[in-house]
């Protein structure tokens, strides 16, 4: 694993954020050591505000004193800058790369937006409706997984974890939280068997272990501080 001093890498984040978690997974995939700084979103640090003055949110990766914001941008940055270190998550082929970027954008547009609404919606009916949106998106992603993996490979990226895996996989811990909040199973093996099996493989992968939030009650308690 690369020494932290070699790359002067610092990550500003919040422990249960899927967007922060995907950056942590990417850094682990590459075997890059980094300093992690937990942010208080109710009292944001001057460092965070100065590094991300536009959105004022995490994650922010600071590499050699230069800040990079937005999780998908950060993952792509790490993949490019450390192309010779560890596996790459984005394909070399231009079409395959564009396809991966399309599905990653789909994930945050459909799954991410619904996830955020579920967190802060007051009405139970709204939470249920948004959970249904996630389930519908996962059904679409079931087909995408079959196409991208060829129906036999373990990950969207083929034999190895790829860009779509990192982006979608960062929500897996929260699917369990939503299930407890709403009472509806999000990732259902009866409805999306390929994705359900993929989720088990992804969470068991070494770069993912210890990253995704596992204590549902702890996450719900943390969420209550913002409601």
What's the SSE blueprint?
Elements: H1 4-7, E1 9-13, H2 18-30, E2 35-38, H3 46-51, E3 60-63, E4 66-69, H4 71-81, H5 94-120, H6 124-149, H7 163-169, H8 172-182, H9 193-204, H10 216-224
Parallel strand pairs: 1-2
Antiparallel strand pairs: 1-3, 3-4
Helix pairs in contact: 2-4, 5-6, 5-7, 8-10
Family: Belongs to the GST superfamily. Tau family.
InterPro entries: Glutathione-S-Trfase_C-like, Glutathione-S-Trfase_C_sf, Glutathione_S-Trfase, Glutathione_S-Trfase_N, GST_C_Tau, Omega/Tau-like, Thioredoxin-like_sf
Domain GST C-terminal: 93-227
Could you describe the 3D structure shown?
- This protein has ten helices and four strands; from the N terminus they run H-E-H-E-H-E-E-H-H-H-H-H-H-H.
- A four-stranded mixed β-sheet has the order 2-1-3-4.
- It is globular and about 45 Å long.
- The longest helix has 27 residues.
- Helix 2 runs parallel beside helix 4 and helix 8 crosses helix 10.
- The protein folds into two domains: 78 residues, Glutaredoxin, CATH 3.40.30; 131 residues, Glutathione S-transferase Yfyf (Class Pi), Chain A, domain 2, CATH 1.20.1050.
- It is of the alpha+beta class and 227 residues long.
- The N terminus is likely disordered.
- Strand 1, helix 2 and strand 2 form a beta-alpha-beta unit.
């Amino acid at each position: 694993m690369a020494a932290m001093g070699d790359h002067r890498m610092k990550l500003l984040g919040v422990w249960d954020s899927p967007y922060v978690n995907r950056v942590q997974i990417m850094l682990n995939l590459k075997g890059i050591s980094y300093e992690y700084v937990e942010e208080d979103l109710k009292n944001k640090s001057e460092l965070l505000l100065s590094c991300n003055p536009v959105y004022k949110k995490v994650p922010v990766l600071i590499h050699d004193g230069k800040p990079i914001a937005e999780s998908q941008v950060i993952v792509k940055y790490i993949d490019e800058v450390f192309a010779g270190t560890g596996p790459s998550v984005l394909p070399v082929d231009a079409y395959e790369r564009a396809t991966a970027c399309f599905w990653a954008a789909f994930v945050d547009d459909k799954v991410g937006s619904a996830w955020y609404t579920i967190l802060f919606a007051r009405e139970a009916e709204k939470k249920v409706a948004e959970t249904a949106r996630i389930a519908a998106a996962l059904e679409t992603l079931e087909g995408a997984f079959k196409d991208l993996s060829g129906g036999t490979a373990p990950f969207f990226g083929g034999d190895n974890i790829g860009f779509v895996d990192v982006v979608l996989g960062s929500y897996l811990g929260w699917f369990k939280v939503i299930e407890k909040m709403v009472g509806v199973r999000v990732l259902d093996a009866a409805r999306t068997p390929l994705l359900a099996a993929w989720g088990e493989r992804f969470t068991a992968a070494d770069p993912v272990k210890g990253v995704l939030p596992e204590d549902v009650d702890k996450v719900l308690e943390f969420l209550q501080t913002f409601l």
